[in-house]
Amino acid sequence: MTKAELIDYMAQEAKISKEKAGIALNALIDGILEALKTDDGKVQLTGFGTFLTVHREERKGRNPGTGAEITIPAQNVVKFKPGKTLKDALED
């Protein structure tokens, strides 16, 4: 599902205009991004799942094309842990 399809779905289910659904979706995305930038770096949506910011240390890797050893720089990454309701819904 693309962002545009999600906006269409939200508009239809909430019986609102696509413009308002787009604004709501963008606000949700912006809120999640801002929360992930904080020291806590965690957004928990009960039943759906949790977005976490995790720091990955610098590590060694290999260039798959040449086989040469490279250094992969440290970075912050986002992980998602699905909630029980989401897991159960996907099992059916």
Secondary-structure topology with pairs:
Elements: H1 3-14, H2 18-37, E1 42-45, E2 49-56, E3 59-62, E4 69-72, E5 75-82, H3 84-91
Antiparallel strand pairs: 1-2, 2-5, 3-4
Helix pairs in contact: 1-2
**The CATH H-level homologous superfamily:** IHF-like DNA-binding proteins
Strand percentage lies at 25-35%
The neighbouring-strand order within the major sheet is: 1-2-5
State Rg.
18 Å
Mean pLDDT: 95
N→C terminal distance: 20 Å
* Total tally of structural domains: 1
Give the ordered list of helices and strands.
HHEEEEEH
Number of helices, where a helix is a run of at least 4 consecutive DSSP H or I residues: 3
The third-level CATH topology is HU Protein, Chain A
Kindly provide the name of the CATH class: Few Secondary Structures
* Shape assignment: elongated
Enumerate the spans where pLDDT stays under 50 for 5 or more consecutive residues.
none
Helix content: 40-55%
SS-based class: alpha+beta
Beta strands, count: 5
The CATH architecture would be Irregular
Largest sheet, strands/sense/barrel? 3 strands, antiparallel
What does this 3D model show about the protein?
With 92 residues, this protein is of the alpha+beta class. It has one domain: HU Protein, Chain A (Irregular). Helix content is 43%, strand content 30%. The protein has 3 helices and 5 strands; from the N terminus they run H-H-E-E-E-E-E-H. The protein has helices at 3-14, 18-37, 84-91; strands spanning 42-45, 49-56, 59-62, 69-72, 75-82. The strands form 2 sheets. It has a 3-stranded antiparallel beta sheet. A two-stranded antiparallel sheet has the order 3-4. A hairpin with a 3-residue loop joins strand 1 and strand 2 (49-56). Helix 1 (3-14) crosses helix 2 (18-37). It is elongated. The two termini are 20 Å apart. The mean pLDDT is 95.
